[in-house]
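Hello,

Our lab assistant flagged a job as stuck in the queue for most of the afternoon. It eventually completed. Since we weren't sure the result was trustworthy after the delay, we are filing this so someone can double-check. Below is the sequence as submitted and the structure that was eventually returned. Let us know if re-running is recommended.
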Amino acid sequence: MYGKTGNDGQYHDGLLPYHLKDISNTRYDDGTQRIIKWLVLDAPVDTLWIESLNTLLDDTRILSLPSGFRINLKKDIKIVFEAESLTQATPATISRVGLVYFESERLTWFPVTRKWLDEHKSNKDWYDNIENGLINMFIL
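-- returned structure --
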């Protein structure tokens, strides 16, 4: 997830630093509109990797990699963890995040997506493209 040192002795970024760097370097069209970017992590919470995220989740908002490289998380980047269980998370980690609990039997992804789409209906072209794409991807 964070990266590793290859046989060549070079450090290679894992998925998390790669995507954090990518969305951190996203440019705005005209520089005036703040665009919030979301990174969604969907995996079981493991004590080894979640503890390494504590500095990213606290006020410093910095991810320190084993290579010594540090990534500063900008204010317009939000991270969502989708986890089945938090039994492996420590109080230090829990105190740094906001929690939302959904019973999977009562709330599926569709009502949440429908609500989000309904809030964006004013942009007709965007809305139609996204709605059709989601329907083709997940329903058909």
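-- support follow-up --
The delay was a queue issue, not a problem with the job. The result is valid. The first helix runs from residue 15 to 24. The chain has two domains: 3-101, 103-140.
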